[in-house]
Amino acid sequence: MSMIGEYVRVTAAQLDRAIQDPDWALDHVEEVQDSEEESEPAPAGARHFSTYKAWGLLGYLLERAEVPVNVIHGEETFAEGRDWGYGPPRCLRPDRVRLAARTLRATPYERLVAGVDPADLTRAEVYPLGWDEPGVLEWGRNWYDGLTDFFEAAAAADEGMLVWLD
Q1: Using CB atoms within 10 A of its CB, is residue 17 exposed (0-12), middle (13-18) or buried (19+)?
Q2: What is the rounded CA–CA span in Å between residue 73 and residue 55?
Q3: How far apart (Å, rounded) are the C-alpha atoms in residues 142 and 52?
Q4: How far apart are CA 88 and CA 38, in angstroms?
Q5: Residue 83, helix vs strand vs coil
Q6: Is the pLDDT higher at 80 or at 9?
């Protein structure tokens, strides 16, 4: 079983509804995921995005870079006591999505991995482990680029995010 980082873009009204009605939020997430399963839209046009197993690597790199928004886990827990896979979901409000989008775009992947030794990831027990392969840091680039595009699209639409590990 894998731990997968998941995101769904939501309007401000949908975010408020999700916080008030977690059952609706889960149903909405499943509808969005189902609707995009076949079409697999590009991150900038998607409502759902996954960082796959790269969430651990990206989280480590973003924390190391002191990114001011918790992009990987979200910032506000809602649906307390509910388990969407690995704990309750969290959210990012539109202003935090905008800040995250600006920060992600201003922080190229090359800067994130500069000076990082894969052994650092092993010592820090960064999920999913196995950081001893050559070129392993390059594995996260496509996930980071997609996440950046996804956040920028949400920021341009003044949207929030639902965030969880599944």
Answers
A1: middle
A2: 9
A3: 11
A4: 27
A5: coil
A6: 9
What is the tens place of the pLDDT at every residue in 6-38? 999 999 999 999 999 999 999 999 999 999 998
Q: What is the pLDDT of residue 74?
A: 98
> Which pLDDT score is estimated for 93?
98
CA pair distance 27, 140, nearest whole angstrom:
30
pLDDT in tens, 56-75: 999 999 999 999 999 999 99
Sheet holding 90-92, edge to edge: 48-52, 5-10, 160-165, 90-92, 76-77
CA 59 – CA 70 distance, rounded (Å): 8
Taking alpha carbons only, the member of 93, 108, 104, 105 closest to residue 158 is 93
Residues 6+ apart with CB under 8 A from 101: 148, 151, 152, 154, 155
E-strand stretches of the chain: 5-10, 48-52, 76-77, 90-92, 160-165
Mean pLDDT to the nearest integer, 45-55: 97
Pairing of β 48-52 and β 160-165? unpaired
- Strand segments (E) across 2-159: 5-10, 48-52, 76-77, 90-92
